[in-house]
Amino acid sequence: MYRSIFLSLLVCLLVASCAGEPLSAPKDSPPLATPAASSTPALTQTPRPLVTFSPIPTSPQTIVTLTLPPPTLEPQDWKNWSVIPSYIDPSLKNIYELGLSLGNDPHAFSIFGDCQTRPTEFFGVFETDPASLQDLSPELRETVAYFSGSFNRESPTAQDGTTPGALLWMQWHRGEYGCTFAETPVQCELRTHRPSFVIIQIGTHFESRNTDYLRKIINQLLDAGVVPILATKADNREKDERINRDMALLASEYDLPLWNFWAAVSHLPNRGLYTRPDRPLQGDIYLTDEAARIHRLTGLEALNAVWRAVTAP
Q1: How many Å apart are CA 40 and CA 229, to the nearest integer?
Q2: How confident is the model over 43-85, as pLDDT tens digits?
Q3: H-type helices in 226-268, by residue range?
Q4: Which phi and psi (to 5°) does residue 288 adopt?
Q5: Taking a C-beta distance cutoff of 8 angstroms, is the pair 41, 309 a contact?
């Protein structure tokens, strides 16, 4: 009977990013994925508008060292933070080494995100498209080779509509990906993939307890010896930019690196966003071809910078 109830509930639930309008999880119950209207259409592959590529306003690809002086970064000034973190706190080296002692895989990373971080939309091309790989610098090709197997991988933590609350909900993974209903998607991913790094880019949603959920996730990662890399997003569907501010606040609070994707696409018209014709009510939350290219490249640069910093002699 329990499983029948679960299956009925799952049919009716989807969350905001890459789905429909959500509601906040009940305050007195375990963190749940935010429900949405059941009329939300199923995800289909919709061609993005074609645009002309333009230069990416990021700094040259360089190996980040642990000897750089820490910059003065104020969370409220997050729009002016660099795209790729130029300073990696030395304490993260201790977190990384703790993870190795606990059995984490130094060649593995994970992604906590929504539909726009799934392999087909994000990193998967680095393992499936030789041309995309060859377009990278030698340094970034080395990074792809080092983390081979993590780029084109489906996981319980990077799914359509994922929010921070969904990552802490034991039924969000639907019992797939080798997960059990006794564990959350985060616990499942840490057990099955054993990552040393996690990129957290959880997109559009309206959860009122966003920072509370994210703190739980970050603390769980740090306790497991996993280095978190936080990220901003391009859209502002919540209207007050609080999700990006939350990410900057937590990056400052925990001394974590922030991949400022918002700044990477700020030079594009409408920040490289468009509305899918089959989902007109969602507004401009999907990435154009150019914005998606920048998304992949700057995300890889952020991973490269943090990895090289924490493994430097």
Answers
A1: 31
A2: 344 444 443 333 444 444 444 444 455 667 899 999 999 999 9
A3: 242-254, 261-264
A4: -70, 170
A5: no
Instruction: Assess contact for 297 and 269: CB atoms under 8 A.
Output: no
> What percent of the chain has a predicted confidence (pLDDT) above 70?
76
Task: Please indicate, yes or no, whether the overall pTM of this predicted structure exceeds 0.90.
Answer: no
Amino acid at 138: P
Q: Residue 279: its pLDDT value, please?
A: 86
Beta bridge partners of 273: 287
For 45-54, 77-86, 142-151, 221-230, which range has the lowest pLDDT when averaged over its residues? 45-54
Tokens (6 digits) for 294: 């920048």
286-287 vs 273-274, strand pairing mode: antiparallel
Domain residue spans in the chain? 2-37+59-310
The Cα angle at residue 103 between residues 88 and 108, in degrees rounded to 5: 55
Q: What is residue 199's three-state secondary structure?
A: strand
Nearest CA among 190, 110, 193, 192 for reference residue 158: 110
CATH topology of domain 2-37+59-310: Rossmann fold (3.40.50)
